[in-house]
Amino acid sequence: MYSNMKILTGSANPELAKAICDHLGCQLTPTLATTFNDGELRIEIGDNVRGDDVFVVQPTCPPAINRNLMQLCLILDALKRASAARITAVIPYYAYARQDRKITPRAPISAKLVADFISVAGAGRVVTIDLHAGQIQGFFNCPVDNLFAAPVMLAPLRELGENNIVIVSPDAGGVERARAYAKRLNAPLAIVDKRRDRPNQATAVHVIGEVEGRVAIIVDDMIDTAGTLCAGAEVLLKYGAEKIVACAAHPVLSGPAIDRINATETLSQVIVTDTIPLDDKIERCPKLKVISVAALLGKTIHNIHTGSSVSVLFV
After folding, report:
1. Where does Mg(2+) bind (predicted)?
2. Which CATH topology does 5-148+294-314 take?
3. Which of 130, 269, 279, 306 could pair with 249 as two cysteines, CB 3.0-4.6 Å apart?
């Protein structure tokens, strides 16, 4: 079935790429991704790709965001010059997505610039998961499939008890995402009113909605420094939440994030996916529970390759 399909990866998250191949029952195409002595990246595709349908699995994730982004662009360029028939960039985590508009004078729209890099490098289609801002899809001049992590998150969330949960958006910007979870779980919705004075610093003020005596599930697209998450957990406790759990697609977990989550006694569990490799963070933070998106991405790749509908995966 996959005789003319190939899956490649750089060094960003090879474990996820291998898991996708295991799901599809195919082999990962070897790709050399090293660094020259002067720091320049070296890319070389280890197999013939002429006329093939090629998928490059490479999140632009920390701890080396810019290196991973450059690797992705170089792989795409190499495939384009090797006459691949179709090139799809599978970017589970899309970096710079929070810089999707000008909020101060003389600032770049970085999310758009990154989209241009990827398009010019050779991507004919993009697959990603839970973009921070949905309008980033419009930054590309090619089809973009913005998948949702919700389908893989629902099972562990249902185990918390469907009759006593409330879905909580950590801020006004995440209401649409939280509402989608609430609809699927047939649960009420609440919103944490948040003020942000500076980047990566947020203060939760109060809660809109009823959380008293319920299991509060904070839903977000990513957890970066965990300031928003931990502040939200504290205010939910003050409003009478019985138990507080968080879920997010992208575990960025930079800076003091792990220490903050461990120190926040009111937060019992944090459910995340493997769009970003966690390395030793799982050992350092016993509250983390990782759910794989390999099957979701594998189904998406299969449907794109066979010309089947991708929209069925959004249900």
Report:
1. 132, 171
2. Rossmann fold (3.40.50)
3. 130
